Prior knowledge:
The structure holds three protein chains of three kinds. Chain A is built from nine helices and 17 strands. Chain A is of the alpha+beta class. Chain A is elongated. Chain B is an all-alpha fold. Chain B has two domains: 1-36; 43-263, Orthogonal Bundle (MetI-like fold). Chain B has twelve helices and no strands. In chain B, α3 crosses α9 and α7 (137-163) packs antiparallel against α10 (210-216). Chain C has one domain: MetI-like fold. Chain C starts with a helix and ends with a helix. Chains B and C meet through α1, α3, α4, α5 and α7 of B and α1, α3, α4, α5 and α6 of C.
Amino acid sequence: MAIEVRNITKRFGDFLALDDVSVDIAAGSLTALLGPSGGGKSTLLRVIAGLESPDSGVVEISGTDATRLPPQRRNVGFVFQHYAAFKHMSVYKNVAFGLEIRKKPKAEIRRRVDELLELVHLEPFAKRLPSQLSGGQRQRMALARALAVEPEVLLLDEPFGALDAQVRKELRAWLRRLHDEVHVTTVFVTHDQEEAMDVADRIVVMANGRIEQEGTPDELYEKPANDFVMSFLGPVTRLGDRLVRPHDLELLDKAEDDSTEAKVVRVVRLGFEVRVEIQVDGSDVWVQMTRYVADRLDLEPGGRIFVREAVTSA
Amino acid sequence: MTDAPSPVVRYGMRILALGYLAFLLVIPVGLVFWRTFENGIGPVIEALSSPLAKHAFTVTLQVASIAVVANTIFGVAVSLLLVRHEFRGKRILNTLIDLPLAVSPVIVGLALILVYGRLEPVGGWLSERGIDIIFAVPGMAMATIFVSLPLVVRAVVPVLEEVGIEQEQAAWTLGASPIQTFRRITLPAIRWGLAYGIVLTLARSLGEFGAIAVVSGRIRGKTQTLTLFVEERFQNFDEHAAYAAAFALAGVAVVALVAMNISRPEES
Amino acid sequence: MRPGTGLGLGLATLYMSAIVLVPLGAVVWRSRGDGWSGFWHDVTTPEASSTLRLTVGVSLAVAVINAGFGTLIAWVLVRDRFAGKRFVDALIDLPFALPTIVAGLVLLALYGPESPLGVDLAYTRPGVVVALLFVTLPFVVRTVQPVLIELDREMEEAAASLGATRATIFRRIILPNLMPAIAAGTALSFARAISEYGATVLISGNLPFKTQVASVHIFSQIENDNTTGAAAVSTVLLLVSLVVLLSLDLVQRWAVRRD
């Protein structure tokens, strides 16, 4: 195990940020800490990095007890949401910083920095100041800087949170590719479930300072441990007493064995996707389908329709 | 305003404001510059090279340097404490630091005499060991430190707050020790605020009069700063030397003003 | 607490105690040297009470004048445009940079016996007022300026669209928003004025009962070895400053709650 977290508790004044949290992160994996704001994921990441000290519990990195070690000695790379670029240094100097602190010979520093700048596609910007870079470029620089000292673990705190949607998508794909190349144990924090599902091998869902569930994206999506995880990871609607996925519901023109009668309230066409809002026994439910399926049904607002859960082939 | 003010009002206000400034600041200062060089540069240089004047220069520089160095170290340390650390009593410390600004310089002098004068417990104890505070350079340095205490702190704190702690945290994760982080990351980040604070402190230290007047004993040739020199020469009807020294001090003030404006951290 | 906090705090406290806190405490302590009756006596001698009344009176006048002219100057610097405005703006800080004794000399040159304007204010109260106006100039200007710069123009535009004249806009929209800053600057200039020594020394001639301000009185008491009397009057002065600054703090808190 690259990281072992055991029984970590952390309070900020009266606020309980982490409540007896334990989790293992496998070496070489790409893990997402996913959850709503204030859920404890950033705090957990910072505890692993040594930027916060836990009230109780143990953090082990690569088998060594790191709980009392300062960040300097943990050999973790950390990437901040707002880049934390050294504003007064060039891109080159930023990336070289960790190596200079370790008093590496100049030639070696130059080689390593050039290598990294090439990796993150920032070679032409080596002499620029961070203020002359775009947000996405600054974040790539921050990543190169963190990787320069060959950390055992790479931690990213909402790394794409400050970037706009298009850049976010690009960097997501790029982080995945980077991990495939470099294979360093990576943990990143996000509140965006799409991002977590897109990038990570494993997801740890956290809320209210506790771990709700962990597993692969598929496991979490198909077999959520509770309603919270289910609603957080994908669309949900309530049919009867259970939460179901709107795309797992089927609409029929004629009644069949396991179908229930419903009334069509509204039909919303969103390009490829069609959402049908219906009422079942007085409750509002919505169903998600492709427009090909919708076109074959007779959907009139106010009209009668039948709904049942579709059998999904696992 | 949405619609431009009538020209009468606008020019009226402008003339009133500029006139006030002219008659309060500009003309008096200009007049002194004029009077100083009434008889040419020669007499001015002569007056400023008299042994008394030279000594005043020396004492002033000694005292001012001590104050600037001491308050810069104190200022940076306290700024870091206030912005980067948590502890009870932070608000009290904040208020206490501003205290010197509200105290009359003569009271500053009195206060120091009451503790460090030869007849007082602490002062007496030190005097027995050959250390004289009052009527000597150490006392003058303390008085100058007192009056300029808050200046570096007040200049550095806002800059430290604005820079934020993340760059420092990033440096830690990259292996930098607290000292390395301070030297390579924090100090460069605050350098303009620090420069501004140091210029203010230097100007204040060179110009201190009231506290020094009390604490120094005004011993000519021994504890007389340039400001005391100006007063003493004036009272002794040597207006010429007084104006010359005043000019030197005013010149320094103008240079300090320019430096202040260059280094003033911009409010974003 | 992080490592280093305790040590840093301890050293800072030591530094401040040795230089500021203990000495100031000694002043208050010494003022009670002859007991309460002694204290009362020291501050109510004809000379002491005259100087205190004069100092407060003159400083109030200076504070009021600063409130007016300081706001005017800040207004012109922010809202008006003319050649050399940046230079004038830099000039405002001159009283902060200039030694007070030089300020005194400079004012005496223009408003003293050898005045080219024929205006001789030496040995008069107006002379003291002028000296104090010089040293307190930046206070109101520098507190009002940033507020004026930040002022939301859209408020004024909204008022204009509702029919308000410029005078009304100033009176009912702008001025109320400037009040906290004007009050702060005025209070600061008052506190500074009652403490001033160097600028008044030359032009006032230090005539007791006529132009001797509190700091000069304290100085002469020290020279006459009456440190207890000096400490007593000093304590009164410190108390007045304290009251002014506390009131300022209260007013500012109240103003913030209004937002």
